[in-house]
Amino acid sequence: MLYISRLIGGLTAAVMLFCFTAQASAEETSMDEIVEKMPAKSIAVAECTTGQMLYEKNADEPLPISHLAKLMLLLLTAEKLEDGSLSMDDIVTVSANANEMPAPQVWLDKSEKISVEELIKALTVGNANDAAVVLAEHIYGNTDCAVYEINCKAKLLDMQNTAFSDVCGIDASTVSSTSDIVKLAAELVKYDILTPYFCSWLDYIRDGKAELVNRNRLVRSYKGITGMKACGSENVGECGVFTAEKRGMKIAVVVLGCDSRDNLEDIAKNLIDSCYDCFSVYIPEVDDEMTKDLPVEGGEKRTVPVTFGEMTPVLIKKGSSKDFDVEMTCEEVLKAPIKKGKCCGKLVVRDGEDTVFQADLLTNESVKEISFAFCLRKMLLYFLKM
């Protein structure tokens, strides 16, 4: 009966999303309108590298986020692992406070010893509240300090609709918005150390006594998925953060308050597919002619090497780059003295009247103005070689 129930639920979700697509074709409905009709309270989809928001529905509305709150603790943990102040092999002692946490949990006993790596597994693969408290206490001493640091990090990430009251997401006053959580997801995907855990479907900790099954079923069914977390409760509904990477694009989909687990996953898959079907990452090609050394007038060197400054990728509609106009302007001669990093040109890419991309051409070295002492040294070297 359970199998039949799941099958019916899956078919219902598929039919609903088919109807969305069919309606889009029949009425030329935009993707934004389709997203608006999806059965969830709030949706946000962004490309992580550029930070560009692609689709959204009530994206700035603060809502309870349940176990998704644990993603912020995982971000701070990843930072500690990277700077060396925390190790996967560190052994942690379970407190009475952690032992008393409600389900979901991995049944940690008071005074039990457990590694940081196992705690990370319990948070990434599972949603264990007791593991979250143990890890927070180990890093920050107590959960109050952890909550303070988590809120500070949220402010640094400009998560304006976010407030944490606990590290687990149990407290209903721990809220965020999908527009904020995509910023968090964009930070988390930078830490490759967490990816294998986020993508693990099944794992065990505590010498096999605790089985962990990932609630994010896309990790075993969607090619290119890189995590992150799914959860659900009667009060919040089905929620999830889903990240994927293909063809240089890192997509994050955040859904809060979906009406069913099957719809949650189908929404995520459809939105990720739409991103890869409709958009691509663009950086203009740079040839040797654009970055050839520039002549210098009145300097100790006759030429100076140049390079482009930050070439930040931009997201464009797929296939639109064929219509772009690429314009390169550059000074013909530079006059000494020249400081390293001096702007001496600009690359601009336009789509009609709209600027799509631009980058500054910068000098890659400093060049001093020619002086009497320099000329004298050159003359002495010349006569010594005669």
Features:
Beta-lactamase; 2 domains; 386 residues; 4-stranded antiparallel sheet; Peptidoglycan synthesis regulatory factor (PBP3), Domain 2; 5-stranded antiparallel sheet; alpha+beta; globular
Descriptive overview:
The strands form seven sheets. The chain has a five-stranded antiparallel β-sheet with strand order 2-1-11-10-9, with helices on both faces. The chain has a four-stranded antiparallel β-sheet with strand order 15-20-19-17, with no helix packed on it. A three-stranded mixed β-sheet has the order 14-13-18, with no helix packed on it. The protein folds into two domains: 14-281, 3-Layer(aba) Sandwich (Beta-lactamase); 288-372, D-Ala-D-Ala carboxypeptidase, C-terminal domain (Peptidoglycan synthesis regulatory factor (PBP3), Domain 2). The protein is an alpha+beta fold and 386 residues long. The protein is built from eleven helices and 20 strands. It starts with a helix and ends with a helix. It has helices spanning 2-27, 31-37, 70-83, 96-99, 116-124, 129-140, 143-156, 178-188, 195-198, 261-278, 372-385, and strands at 40-47, 53-57, 63-64, 91-93, 113-115, 175-176, 202-205, 210-213, 225-233, 237-246, 249-258, 279-282, 294-297, 303-304, 306-308, 314-317, 325-330, 334-335, 343-351, 354-363.
